[in-house]
Amino acid sequence: MPVTEDRQKFVYDFTEGNKELKDLLGGKGANLAEMTNLGLPVPPGFTITTEACKVYLEGGEEPPSMRDEVTAHLEALEERMGKKLGQADNPLLVSVRSGAKFSMPGMMDTVLNIGLSDESVAGLAVQAGDERFAWDSYRRLIQMFGKTVLGVDGELFEDALEEAKRAKGVTTDVDLAAEDLKALVARFKDIVAKETGRDFPQAPREQMDLAIRAVFDSWNGDRAKLYRRQERIPGDLGTAVNICSMVFGNLGPDSGTGVAFTRDPASGHQGVYGDYLQNAQGEDVVAGIRNTMPLAELERIDKASYDQLMQIMETLETHYKDLCDIEFTIERGKLWMLQTRVGKRTAGAAFRIATQLVDQGLIDEAEALQRVTGAQLAQLMFPRFDEKAKTELLGRGIAASPGAAVGRAVFDSYTAVKWSRSGEKVILIRRETNPDDLDGMIASEGILTSRGGKTSHAAVVARGMGKTCVCGAEELEVDTKQRKMTAPGGVVVQEGDVVSIDGSSGKVYLGEVPVVPSPVVEYFEGRMHAGADDADELVQAVHRMMAYADRMRRLRVRANADNAEDALRARRFGAQGIGLCRTEHMFLGERREMVERLILADTDTEREEALSALLPLQKADFVELFEAMDGLPVTVRLLDPPLHEFLPDITELSVRVALAEAREDANENDLRLLQAVHKLHEQNPMLGLRGVRLGLVIPGLFAMQVRAIAEAAAERKNAKGDPRAEIMIPLVGTVQELEIVREEAERVIAEVEAASGTGLKLPLGTMIELPRAALTADQIAEAAEFFSFGTNDLTQTVWGFSRDDVEASFFTAYLEKGIFGVSPFETIDKDGVGSLVRAAAKAGRATRPDLKLGVCGEHGGDPESVHFFHEVGLDYVSCSPFRIPVARLEAGRAAALNGKGGSDSR
Ligand code: ADP
Ligand code: MG
Ligand code: MG
């Protein structure tokens, strides 16, 4: 047999593809193929692959063999349909449709009716027995082709169409007769000639080839590029092109076009959801040119087609095992399927649909977990605007950071700060924000910008701060000089007017919209029960999904909580312990003075006095906490932040002392304090005297804290409680530091045991938050019974930047340039920080096989990071109480995904 060169295949008939081939055929093409193979009525056609697009984008030319393949497929199609593309007396017409792996605004719009020309329009009229229809199709072709392929301003055609209707005295396009449309075609051709300097192409194949090329080019259009960056879709996927033989919904009242969902994308309920428009083509149904009818009415107009459609919808749901959305056309009573895909849905519907599909036996629990995300759950937990409230919508932008915020409009940072100081709630409105706006952003309830996308400064910083943000609301005109914002339609918002912004939907309202608590939070708080007869359907669905996740997950979930109140909430939310209790929060308020005394102590006696004043207070805090978390582990971190955080501000104090000196009544204590502040002042406090270093240079400090923990534990034990305290040392860089602390701690614990007559088991471990600690984890594990990865500090020290200093200054630029896909403080940087975590976990366990491993940075509540920690084999993640449900769900999803051996979806 002769060896033939294995040529790449660039064109696939609809019968050759399937739904798994989205990378190659795009979403639309893959699903058209799937429907074809299911035996559904899809007009025949073929798909040009994304690979062909890639070749074109790289070299500026279609791969040479592609043209031949297109010719071969076209000929086969012509054969099958019994007519040739653009054939004068009986033309085959096709649509040219873009379709990438992910559907993307900005890609080329579909061109319908390709193959019509001055010649074949007459043939079409004869074949269809309808002259009006033929000219209507032709004018649509010139209009769509002119706009999307030749780049003519679409309004020129719209205006001409309006003009034709006005001249005739009618209001809709269906009222135009064949003669009117004929004249309109002439007019449209003039527009094309004038605007492009060439005639509308008459050769059918040329029309098709130009349209294909235009689809390829649209991959790199500005809007498409912007969207990809925002949604983090890789820029090199390319788009496929679908060539689909035309079916006609504009052949009279027994024809039409429609869209439908197999169930309600807002509630998840099964039923008949969709719209239908008689005597119309393509996008007419969603373009709002005429009033559509609810899909249910189709039953009355064309029962046969309606019944068939319902049957097909059921087939699709059962086949895709998910909500599908579809596009269809009816041509003279014959139903055609033009598109389907797994449909978008609201967060609430995602939960409901997942459980419904389990009930229907279509999917199992593990699969159900893949149908929802932690981000969706988080969305359901934000307080939201009351849906029943009357609202006045001003406009909408990009939902950049979720939440519902209400406040007075301010247009600069200075006013935001000033007004918020006097107790006003404000919304900061800017065209876009920059680092100078930081104070204003902090002072505001929410941020609204008219420019920029999901990675703009406003969006990044707001998400970092957990503030509500709507960005890129382009239809709102922001005039910061005049301090006003103008909405489409002319409504003006002046400084001081109240506005409400919804960071989950991107909507902006005039006036105060009432905010209601989320039922999902009410449920987690235990104020609403999933079992109750009148339980909210959404709450029931969330309850069930959480149960699936809890059954499935291997990772345990703990909370970062510093007091009994947070601890109790965490417990209600499902926390299985506290992963991080920060003791510094116990040294604030009135107790700050005692810390001051400790810092100022000149003699051992003074220091011991200060420490013994703090001891009972610390102990009381711990007793409360251990009681709240009875039976569950509580990891207490010894004092971590630089001491100067407990001292007065250096400038304020200097001024006070200077003024007092001028009055000649300088206060001895203030002078000592000022000296201490000067002494403790650091250029880089984050890298200064803090963490374990404090414990080693301030005699007795850590011993006092350990004693407070031990005594609290002993007291709880003697009260028949079950305290499970763990002592955690922060900022360790070398095992020697830990050994010294451990020796002292063991001595103190032994003393407490003897005095209280109880045996105490208090594991002692360390945070791993410095690269050196991670790199010497094998040694550190000799002295540590557990590791808790402090991924916030670890990220800062691995990257060499401090979050507070840099997030507002250059992260936007980094995100825009694609250096980060996402801030490393939001999602763990797997390659850098993550690889240290992985290595340290392995090395630590090599030394001590039962070493317990956790993480207590904010990443512990971030979905993608949770998956990573699962995969690395940590025992638990710890996050803020509010993120616990998200972490539980994602830990379940990670386990379900791994169980199936699949890979993570986007
Ligand atoms: P989009 O990606 O914007 O949904 P489509 O390629 O689905 O674009 O096409 C736009 C409209 O044209 C849709 O209403 C679709 O159903 C319709 N359409 C596409 N191809 C054909 C065809 N061959 N015959 C009839 N209508 C078509
Ligand atoms: Mg479509
Ligand atoms: Mg730290």
From TrEMBL:
Organism whose genome encodes this protein: Streptomyces luteoverticillatus
Annotated positions binding substrate: R582, R637, E769, G790, T791, N792, D793
Molecular function in Gene Ontology: ATP binding; kinase activity; metal ion binding; pyruvate, phosphate dikinase activity
Regions that span the bilayer: none
Residues that bind Mg(2+): E769, D793
Reactions accelerated catalytically: pyruvate + phosphate + ATP = phosphoenolpyruvate + AMP + diphosphate + H(+)
Domain PEP-utilising enzyme C-terminal residue range list: 540-891
Listed NCBIfam families: PRK05878.1, pyru_phos_dikin
Domain Pyruvate phosphate dikinase AMP/ATP-binding: 23-58, 65-291, 299-348
Name this protein carries in UniProt: Pyruvate, phosphate dikinase
UniProt enzyme class: transferase
PANTHER family, per the entry: PHOSPHOENOLPYRUVATE DIKINASE-RELATED, PYRUVATE, PHOSPHATE DIKINASE 1, CHLOROPLASTIC
